[in-house]
Each structure stands twice: as structure tokens, then as C-alpha cells.
Design brief:
Its EC number is 4.4.1.11. The protein is an alpha/beta fold. Helix content is 38%, strand content 14%. The chain binds ligand 3LM. Residues 88-90, 114, 117, 157, 161, 186, 188, 208, 210, 220, 222, 339-341, 355 line the site of ligand 3LM.
């Protein structure tokens, strides 16, 4: 790290924080400690480490030197006390829940969430004696009305996957604080470069590091950032004894490599997505574009307050509904038809049959997104090429696709 009196900036910390090459033969990049276990110099040392009375590594499920560098760096970027890297975003979310919520407790979650987070809360968690209820957090008053002494945890994404709804994190955090509930914000869509929920009052941030943090579509990983006390608890219970979702040292190395360019990539994702959202909105085949930077987004002012820029994710609906959407998606050439997000490549996918197929058609209707919704993860290719690909595919749809179909006759997908 540079020897300066003031705190280095985001990009500098993303490249240097918590790693001193001088300790590793000057190696510019951290070594990948591919080891399951760590030897103790005496029985007493081992016992002391297990008892938490001596520093030092024990076993890579609970800690590894390469992983520790990533964890310190993520904590610094999110401005949290400590972090925990996990094998996936779902591993992070489940470790947080298993560690902090118990039988008889309630979780309140936003109305739209990533499909597997929704699946966990709606379809499975009741088997462990935990109740999950969903409220529309675009209006924090809904949360204020629903929260109760039984509410142990509140979970939200902002913007939400897939339809870009926002929660006012500062207001939601204050409601949670007053009620004694923990606020967990999934910051996957924004990354700490665009939004820092802990600074707005959230207790815990979770990430799918598979996405922008890794940034290259070559790994699955997750992270939790919170107070030292919460991270120690989640590591020693959620990861060590409950779900075992530890990250491999090699994947930690890849996330560290991705972080070095996080701010540059995010700037480019955001700039291209902002231009593209306008172009898509102006196309006659498009019914609606969901992007927080557009004047048509009802929470644009909140997004401008809460986020540095508007992100690289766009959702859209075509006037021709699902059938036009399918033709559009089959008509693109540069964009890849694939789930996941935050990669260098532009990705296009259909939430109702893919990422959010965990919602039944009735649940999708109740939770507020249609079968015609299409999601774009805007990549790092040249703006003109992405634009030409998408607008060209929309142009190919022809006149029929520009006629608005009544919602009732739109095709539905039963995933
Ligand atoms: C997706 N999302 O395409 P992993 N939180 C958020 C997410 O978007 C995701 C996770 C957590 C997608 C994955 S769908 C089969 C592919 C906001 C993942 C979970 O466990 O690292 O995949 O993260 O939207």
C-alpha cells in the first residue's frame, strides 16, 4: 500500500489493500495457498487456535491466507469491519440465515428477489420453523406496518433482480433498527463501487461474487460483509458447522484479480447501459424499459441519491409480450442467451423460465413481474456493437410486434 497519511481511494484499495508483496518474495500477485490443512508446531498451538486463543490457520473451510486477503479487501471496499468469502452467493445468503435466524423467528423480504433466494424463503425455510413473508419495500411504510418483535431479519436487493425496484436503504435500516431486526442487503447488482449499504445503516451486505466482483464469468463465489462480531459468528457456525460453503483459494485469487478492474468495468457497464436504456425505450417494439437512470423509473431520484451510477442491468418488456420477447432473444447475435450477470459479455435471459423459474406463474404475478420480462446484463463490448445487435433484433420483429397485446392473452411459460 502507498505510504500516505490519508486513506487510499477505492481503486487503490481494490488493487493493493491487505497484500504486501515484500512478505512473498516481491510477488506482485498473492500466492494461491492450495492447502486443505495447516500444521501446528505443537499440540498446544493447535488447541489454542481451535479455542480462538491464538491467531493462525487451521483448515481451509474456516480460513486460508489467499482467502483472507480477499476478505480484508472486500471489507475495505464495502467499508465494513470484516468480511467472509464463500463458495457462492447462495452459500453467503444461507450462511447468514442459518447463523442468525432460528426456529420461531420471522424473516421479512422484499417482494422481488433473485429466484433462488425467493425459493429458499418461500419454499424451504418453513421446514426449519422459520416464517418468511414478503413486503413491497419500494414503499418503506409497508415494512413499518409488517415488522414485529418476531422479525429477526429483513432481506432486500436494491436494485432488485430482475425488475430493478429500489429500496430506500437508509429508511429501511432505521425501521429495522427501531424494531431490533437485522437488515441484510444483497449488493450484487451495484457492488461497493456504486453503493455501500453499511454506510446507509444496513447490518449485513451479501454478494454473489460470481458477478461483477469476479467480473469475467469464470467462477462461482459469494461474500458477506458485516461487523467483526457477525462475521466471526457466521464463519464459526454458518460456514464451519452448517453449510460448509467455503471458497477455494483459487477462486479467491480470481476474485482478487477481478477486483483490480472493478471500478473501470463498472464505469463502462454503467455508461453503456445508460445509453442503451434510452435507445431501447425509444424503439416502437418496446413497451417498457426498467432502468433506474430513466425518467420513466419511479425511483430515479432515490437511485441518484443512493447509487454512484445506475448500474449495468436493464429489464424490458416488448409490446408483443412473451412471443415477441422469445423472437427478440433468438434474434440477437452478439449478446449471449445465458443467465448470470456482470460479465464482460452482454448476456440476455428470460427470468420467468430461467433465473426466476422458482416462482410459479401465480407467484410471478403476485410478486410483480410478467412472463414477458427480458433481462439484459450489459457487457463491455463496444457500445455501437451492442446497440446494433439489440436494436437490429428488435427491428427484425416487424409490425406485429409493435402492437400492444392485452396482458390476458400473452403467452405464459410454465417452467
Ligand atoms: C442470475 N444470480 O442470473 P450465486 N444474489 C443475487 C443474484 O443475482 C444471484 C445470487 C445472489 C443469477 C444466477 S441463475 C441460475 C444464475 C442478486 C445469482 C446467487 O450462488 O453465486 O449464483 O449467487 O440472476
Amino acid at each position: 500500500m502507498p505510504k500516505t497519511a490519508h486513506k487510499p481511494g477505492f481503486a487503490t484499495r481494490a488493487i493493493h489493500h491487505a497484500y504486501d508483496p515484500a512478505l512473498y518474495h516481491g510477488a506482485l500477485n498473492p500466492p494461491v495457498f492450495l492447502t486443505s490443512t495447516f500444521g501446528f508446531d505443537s499440540v498446544q498451538t493447535g488447541a489454542d487456535r481451535f479455542a480462538g486463543e491464538a491467531e493462525g490457520f487451521i483448515y481451509s473451510r474456516v480460513g486460508n491466507p489467499t482467502v483472507s486477503i480477499l476478505e480484508s479487501r472486500l471489507a475495505s471496499l464495502e467499508e465494513g469491519e470484516a468480511a467472509l468469502a464463500t463458495s457462492s452467493g447462495m452459500g453467503a445468503i444461507s450462511a447468514v440465515i442459518w447463523s442468525l435466524v432460528g426456529s420461531g423467528d420471522e424473516i421479512l423480504a422484499d417482494k422481488t428477489l433473485y429466484g433462488c433466494t425467493f425459493g429458499l424463503l418461500e419454499h424451504h425455510i418453513h421446514r426449519f420453523g422459520i416464517t418468511a413473508r414478503f413486503v413491497d419495500m419500494t414503499n418503506p411504510e409497508n415494512l413499518r406496518a409488517a415488522i414485529s418483535p418476531r422479525t429477526r431479519m429483513v432481506i432486500t436487493e436494491s436494485p432488485s433482480n430482475p425488475n430493478m425496484r429500489l429500496a430506500d436503504i437508509a429508511v429501511v435500516a432505521e425501521i429495522c433498527r427501531q424494531a431490533g431486526a437485522l437488515l441484510v442487503v444483497d449488493n450484487t447488482y451495484c457492488t461497493p463501487y456504486l453503493q455501500r449499504p453499511l454506510g446507509l445503516g444496513a447490518d449485513i451486505v451479501v454478494h454473489s461474487a460470481t458477478k461483477y466482483l469476479g467480473g469475467h464469468g469464470d467462477l462461482i463465489a459469494g461474500a458477506v460483509v458485516a461487523s467483526r462480531e457477525h462475521i466471526d459468528l457466521i464463519r464459526s457456525t454458518g460456514i464451519k458447522e452448517l453449510n460448509g460453503a467455503c471458497i477455494s483459494a483459487f477462486d479467491a485469487f480470481l476474485v482478487l484479480r477481478g477486483l483490480k478492474t472493478l471500478n473501470l468495468r463498472m464505469d463502462r457497464h454503467c455508461a453503456t447501459a445508460a445509453r442503451l436504456a434510452h435507445d431501447l425505450e425509444a424503439h416502437p417494439a418496446v413497451e417498457h424499459v426498467f432502468y433506474p437512470g430513466l425518467d420513466s423509473h419511479p425511483q430515479k431520484a432515490l437511485a441518484e441519491r443512493q447509487m454512484r451510477a445506475m448500474g449495468g442491468m436493464i429489464a424490458l418488456e416488448l409490446k408483443g409480450g412473451l412471443s415477441a420477447g422469445r423472437a427478440f432473444m433468438d434474434g440477437v447475435g452478439l449478446a449471449t442467451r445465458a443467465v448470470s450477470l456482470g460479465d464482460a459479455e452482454t448476456l440476455i435471459q428470460h427470468p420467468a423460465s430461467m433465473t426466476h423459474a422458482t416462482y410459479s406463474p401465480e407467484e410471478r404475478a403476485k410478486h410483480g413481474f410478467t412472463d414477458g420480462l427480458i433481462r439484459l446484463s450489459v457487457g463491455l463490448e463496444d457500445y455501437e456493437d451492442i446497440r446494433n445487435d439489440l436494436i437490429g433484433a428488435l427491428d427484425q420483429l416487424g409490425g406485429a410486434a409493435t402492437a400492444t397485446q392485452p396482458v390476458a392473452v400473452r403467452d405464459t411459460v410454465h417452467a
